[in-house]
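Morning F.,

Quick status update on the modeling queue. The single chain you submitted on Monday has been processed. Sequence for confirmation:
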Amino acid sequence: MKTIKHLELPPVGMRIIKSAIAVALCYVVALFREGNGIVFYSQLAALWCMQLYVKNSLKSAKQRTVGTIIGALYGLAVILVSNQLDWSPISHSMVYNLVVVLMIVVVIYTTVVINKKEASYFSCVVFLSIVVNHLADQNPYLFVWNRFLDTMIGIIIGVGVNAVHLPKKKNRDILFLSGLDDTLLNKNDNMSAYSRFELNRILDDGAKFTISTKRTPASMMEPMQSIRLNLPVIAMDGAVLYDINQKRYLRKYIISYTKAKEIIDLMEENGLKYFVNVVIDDMLVIYYQEMEDEVQNDLVTQMRRSPFRNYVKRKLPENEEVVYLMILDRIETIERFYLVLEEKGYTQNCKVLKYNSDDYPGYAYIKIYNKNASKNNMLDYLVQDLNIKKVVTFGSIPNNYDVFIEPGDTNRVVRVIKKMYETVNFNFKK
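Structure tokens below.
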């Protein structure tokens, strides 16, 4: 029996609601103009100015204003010249249409000359709305003024509505710590557009948010590159604290060269291929050997494409300190070697993770870290450094986090953070 996939619908965002409000306000203003305006042009301008961020809304408003002025002036010129030469759009349609086509070149070229190329579209829209819809018996000055006014009304309404926010108290004394896989990211390693926008908005506003993941910083940065993280992230399952902006490893729990060499010798005695992750001058280097297994080769091929990883085919150089060792092999091989690690006492003296691979069915991983490498230890360090009193954690393992995230419900992290970070506050007393 086939299982029915859960369809996750994004929430109705404030931008959608504000767009509807802006359209409604355009109707209200049109009532007071007693039929002199065409509300469609106001609504078009208002919707165009309803950008994700207020600063982008202002930028769009400037583009639209410049475009409106250029289009209106050229539209007025065409109408005046056509009336003077008695070129009616109806009786002289071929000539009039040719003039309109040629003037499009002039309109766009003008925006290029004055270095306002981004306004060319708006200029053409306003120009065409004037010259195509013009009626010969209308006052051309009044007609052009109304088209200009239509657009400016929409711009003012769009920017105004987009800038309005309910008064909110910002709780900047909370540190929000989220997992990555099945928490913020879906199975395809993507974050929803809603979460991406809202998370960036509150990060820009000063919210304290960061990530805790088993991934290396390189693996984490690829799906998170559009997120403006401003705090260090806990990576490699608590083995490192990494500053994305400075590209520095601020803190590491390492395995000494002596102990790493002992484990490597044990791996080689059991005929295993392995990966050794080392940080050298804030650069992640992965040492590996010639791989005979197709899956292991595929892993190397996929991973080394990233500019954030440095794969080197050689043994671990002497006296280098290791962040973690990794094996990818068939499940039965991994199970056997895990028993060897238990027998030799490494599962007690080190942190050893064993789990099946999602990408390679029938294969599993073993990762070996310093015994003290943990999310909680790195979190304690980060909390002390930031002088934070309250931490809220998010993850997909039941009973392990403050907020449990059901697999697939990847918008829940941001929804909860928004609710806790910015609470509506109508108390205007200082």
